[in-house]
């Protein structure tokens, strides 16, 4: 055991002494730090500024109110899901946000808005918020009404976009201390509704379909009101008709469950698949290069005078495993720290994904499959290094080996994401070389316990067999002169004591 540890320490020192190791180790933390800072500091605004120029004086206010009501509706939906997720309905059972379906009712949305919207609701919830429950994050409104910029006129002949308005669209606009993109201008002429008199929407050229649809809905409503008035229908009756909506209940799984839960729970296992591939290939390549250099420099002859070939092999595997664990811990720790510190999509996805991993068997299986896959690939690289006289020889073995692993795994990942229980994924789950990848991809979808235990037993047996075969190849290749050929390698594998 002492010899194995000495070789492992030497291997660790040899790998960590290279510049390539430190560049590889720090590449991901630096990339996460730069991208996280950039996304926080330079993230585009979610809100868009718009202007309604209403020469009739009766339509524009309704359109602005309609857009504000859409924001309140989304706020109410998000707040109701938040309240249900953390069992907060009892704080104020009569509040609109205490009902998951309230956002479907325009009357409830208006009641929510009249009560102060999400800001007032958050203030109401805050004193009774249980320990450990994160506060509700208020979102900025999607659309913000602003006055028409100075120097811009919309009465040009033929309705063409003037140069002043075009220049305004090319630049952002200052609104309450924020800088927002200027999205669209709605111009409603005085004679709107008469034959040939059309409202005009000027846009910045980007997709603002929700905004344009809100303009259209408001204009349609104005035309209907005029028609009702022309038919002698009272305004209150007309408003009641327009407000009619079919009763509808949308039944979703509780927040965090259903398909959303599967995708959330799958994030960490899928990330481990890619992390396994990257770390195994990079650290394995380092070890392969070291073994080949030691063979070509005849360094092994001196080492074997003091240590057994099996101890040398085991020490190299142990050292490589330790280096791989350091890389995994640094990369995974940096990723988690970045997700927790920086706001944005990654944080919103990673946090619930970690919270969803609450099954001890699932966590233990993830750890086992990751390290089992790492050991399997590490022994593959070590075997290639043992039978290679030079890096040129190693490349002839390395390229097919990498393709043998990478191509099926990529196909497997695509299949696992789309259909985790498809036949190809289930079959590859029992092929030892691909078992770690397939099982990691499937774990969050609900794999039977017997299948988890069965594949774990399969991997233990396969690693033991691979270790024995690698020991034969390593021992024979180091103790025999001459170029290792496929025939000689096959003979070493068949007979542990045979030398040729």
From TrEMBL:
Cellular localisation: Membrane
Organism of provenance: Aurantiacibacter luteus
Pfam families: ABC2_membrane_3
One MF annotation (Gene Ontology) recorded for this entry: ABC-type transporter activity
Membrane topology value: Multi-pass membrane protein
Keywords: Membrane, Transmembrane, Transmembrane helix
Keyword ATP-binding carried by entry: no
Classification of source organism: Bacteria, Pseudomonadati, Pseudomonadota, Alphaproteobacteria, Sphingomonadales
Major subcellular location class: membrane
Segments traversing the membrane: 21-43, 267-288, 317-342, 362-385, 397-417, 437-465
Superkingdom of origin: Bacteria
Keyword Translocase (UniProt): no
One GO term describing the cellular component: membrane
Protein name: ABC-2 type transporter transmembrane domain-containing protein
Residue intervals of the ABC-2 type transporter transmembrane domain: 184-464
């Amino acid at each position: 055991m002492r010899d194995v540890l000495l070789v492992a320490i030497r291997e660790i020192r040899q790998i960590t002494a290279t510049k390539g190791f430190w560049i590889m180790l720090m590449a991901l933390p630096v990339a996460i730090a730069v991208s996280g800072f950039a996304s926080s500091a330079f993230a585009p605004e979610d809100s868009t500024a718009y202007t309604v120029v209403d020469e009739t004086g009766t339509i524009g206010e309704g359109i602005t109110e309609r857009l504000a009501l859409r924001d309140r509706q989304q706020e109410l939906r998000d707040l109701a899901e938040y309240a249900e997720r953390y069992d907060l309905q009892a704080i104020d059972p009569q509040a609109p946000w205490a009902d998951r379906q309230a956002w479907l009712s325009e009357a409830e949305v208006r009641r929510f808005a009249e009560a102060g919207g999400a800001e007032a609701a958050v203030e109401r919830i805050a004193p009774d918020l249980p320990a450990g429950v994160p506060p509700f994050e208020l979102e900025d409104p999607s659309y913000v009404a602003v006055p028409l910029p100075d120097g811009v006129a919309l009465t040009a002949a033929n309705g063409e976009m003037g140069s002043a308005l075009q220049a305004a669209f090319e630049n952002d606009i200052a609104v309450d201390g924020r800088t927002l993109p200027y999205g669209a201008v709605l111009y409603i002429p005085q004679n709107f509704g008469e034959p040939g008199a059309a409202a005009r929407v000027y846009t910045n050229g980007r997709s603002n379909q929700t905004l344009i649809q809100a303009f259209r809905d408001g204009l349609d409503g104005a035309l209907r009101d005029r028609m009702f008035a022309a038919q002698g229908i009272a305004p209150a009756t007309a408003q009641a008709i327009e407000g009619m909506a079919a009763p509808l209940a949308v039944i979703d799984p509780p927040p965090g469950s259903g398909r959303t839960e599967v995708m959330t729970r799958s994030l960490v296992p899928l990330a481990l698949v890619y992390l396994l591939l990257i770390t195994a290939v990079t650290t394995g390549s380092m070890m392969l290069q070291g073994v080949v250099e030691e063979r070509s420099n005849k360094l092994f002859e001196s080492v074997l005078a003091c240590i057994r070939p099996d101890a040398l092999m085991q020490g190299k595997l142990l050292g490589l495993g330790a280096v791989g664990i350091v890389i995994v811990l640094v990369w995974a720790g940096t990723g988690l720290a970045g997700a927790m510190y920086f706001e944005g999509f990654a944080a919103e996805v990673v946090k619930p994904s970690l919270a969803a991993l609450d099954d001890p068997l699932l966590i233990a299986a993830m750890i086992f499959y990751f390290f089992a896959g790492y050991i399997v690939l590490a022994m593959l690289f070590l075997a290639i290094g043992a039978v290679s006289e030079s890096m040129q020889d190693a490349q002839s073995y390395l390229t097919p080996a990498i393709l043998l692993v990478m191509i099926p795994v990529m196909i497997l990942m695509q299949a696992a994401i789309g259909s985790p229980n498809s036949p190809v994924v289930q079959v590859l789950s029992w092929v030892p070389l691909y078992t770690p990848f397939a099982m990691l991809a499937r774990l969050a979808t609900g794999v039977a316990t017997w299948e988890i235990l069965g594949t774990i037993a399969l991997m233990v047996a396969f690693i033991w067999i691979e270790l024995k075969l690698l020991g034969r190849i390593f021992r024979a290749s180091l103790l025999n002169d001459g170029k290792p050929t496929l025939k000689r390698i096959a003979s070493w594998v068949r007979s542990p004591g045979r030398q040729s």
